[in-house]
Design a protein that fits this description.
The structure is a single chain. With 434 residues, the chain is of the alpha/beta class. It folds into two domains: 215 residues, Alpha-beta prism (UDP-n-acetylglucosamine1-carboxyvinyl-transferase, Chain), CATH 3.65.10.10; 198 residues, Enolpyruvate transferase domain (UDP-n-acetylglucosamine1-carboxyvinyl-transferase, Chain). Helix content is 29%, strand content 23%. The strands form six sheets. A four-stranded mixed beta sheet has the order 2-15-17-16. The structure holds shikimate-3-phosphate. The site of shikimate-3-phosphate (S3P) has 10 residues, from helix 5.
Length: 434
């Protein structure tokens, strides 16, 4: 994809349904004996893999134009899959589904693409084995995962890292386990699972850092749920609107979960022109409409360095944030973000490599990077490295460059946001030649 610089960014993009929430609703719907209709389900390839895995586990999944209908099976009564479960590029599919499958009465094998097979799975194997799971992994605790299917017992587990995927995996296993499962989260991560469980009739007790679920509770379908728009998809246009003179963008019905909106909050605290026009709660999740427009004097107040507890709430937005970083008067140092090295690519390295190709000086650290200020990004040929968020973040960088940027492998945007380029085209009024 060749992305041209632009001086126009206006309109209301059609944002996809939130990926994290879509995975969770689909899996929970799969555990209800009744049918659940999920509106605004994410059109991402990742969430498509979750549906395909549920079908292989014997569930009926109907894909309609406006909703997905899933008819689940009662707790612990999924059917043995007739094939290997392919999670594609999706870490959430693999880690959350593992929590459910370890407690079934049959064996299953989970695999994924090259990227997913190189990502760490030890983080779920440790707590699942403590619960009594029998799982074989490949060398280095990677997928494919061979799950035996065993009765589980509840545990108390202190998360050694902030990870909503690990938390959710343990809670989903805990739902199938004997007794109570407690997950203690010293650093909070996105709270979608503990918000979705009660929507599906499951009692969850939350006390401070501790989230507890009693095993054996049969989830009950709310019949209908609606997924809000994905704030991680909205973040690309939000940052672009803050940086392009004259820009004016509306981002509608985006998920406003406190665990997801740290980037928006940072921009608002720095004085960005971001107005929350409507805020409501639906299915246990806050949603908001935002209007974002350019403001010349924005970035004097933006922090020079971010790290610590702020990181989990903006982990998926760091590639985009790094692009903002090169426009800040003092640049931006990002620390405590070594988790980025374990995403779809090593995002510290892929971001630094692409920024350098556009003319930005970047220092790389084990746990982050320092992006130096750069007033003029220049056109170049770069790669997505097959990572959807790298492709989209650098499309935003390309809008700011002095000439076109060629992004190889840009089709991977479909992993989370298949309509990204057509939305960008509508906002900029420029049709990029493929
Ligand atoms: C996700 C959690 C985060 C995030 C990922 C989606 C989820 O990963 O980066 O894109 O849906 O739970 P970790 O749990 O590894 O932090």
């Amino acid at each position: 994809m060749r992305v041209q610089p632009t001086s126009r960014l206006r309109g209301t993009p059609r944002l996809p349904g939130d990926k994290s929430i879509s995975h969770r609703y689909a899996m929970l719907a799969g555990l209800c004996p009744e049918e659940t209709k999920i509106y605004n389900y994410s059109p991402s390839q990742d969430c498509g893999h979750t549906l395909a895995c549920l079908e292989l586990l014997g569930l009926r999944v109907e894909r309609n134009s406006h909703c997905i209908a899933i008819e689940g099976k009662p707790l612990a009564q999924l059917q043995p899959p007739q094939a290997v479960l392919d999670c594609g590029n999706s870490g959430t599919t693999m880690r959350l589904l593992s929590g459910i499958l370890t407690a079934q009465r049959f064996p299953s094998i989970l695999t994924g693409d090259n990227s997913l097979r190189s990502r760490p799975m030890g983080r779920i194997l440790v707590p699942l084995r403590k619960m009594g799971a029998a799982i074989l992994a490949s060398e280095g605790q990677r997928a494919p995962l061979e799950i035996q299917g065993r009765p589980l017992h509840g545990i108390e587990y202190v998360l050694p890292l902030a990870s909503a995927q690990v938390k959710s995996c343990v809670l989903f296993a805990g739902l199938h386990a004997r007794g109570i499962t407690q997950v203690i989260e010293p650093i909070p991560s996105r709270s979608h699972t503990e918000r979705a469980l009660p929507i599906f009739g499951v009692d969850v007790e939350i006390q401070g850092e501790c989230i507890a679920v009693r095993g054996g509770q049969q989830p009950r379908s709310p019949r209908t749920v609606r997924v809000p728009a994905d704030p991680s998809a909205a973040a690309f246009f939000c940052v672009a609107a803050c940086l392009i003179p004259g820009a004016d963008v509306r981002l509608e019905n985006i998920n406003w979960n406190p665990g997801r909106v740290a980037l928006f909050r940072l921009l608002m605290e720095a004085g960005a022109n971001i107005h929350v026009e409507r805020q409501v709660e639906e299915f246990g999740e806050e949603t908001a409409d935002l209007r974002v427009s350019y403001r010349e004097t924005l970035f004097e107040n933006f922090p020079e360095k971010i790290g610590g507890k702020l990181i989990p709430g903006l982990i998926d937005e760091i590639p985009t944030l790094s692009i903002l970083g090169c426009r800040l008067p003092r640049g931006l140092e990002i620390r405590d973000a070594s988790e980025l090295r374990h995403k779809e690519t090593d995002r510290i390295h892929t971001v630094a490599t692409n920024l350098r190709a556009l003319g930005v000086t970047v220092d790389e650290f084990d746990d982050g990077m320092k992006v130096h200020p750069c007033s003029a990004l220049h056109g170049a040929r770069i790669s997505s490295y097959g990572d959807h968020r790298i492709a989209m973040a650098f499309s935003i960088a390309s809008l700011l460059a002095d000439s076109a940027v060629e992004i190889d492998g840009s089709e991977c945007v479909a992993v989370s946001y298949p309509d990204f380029f057509s939305n960008l085209e509508t906002l900029t009024g420029v049709t990029p030649p493929a």
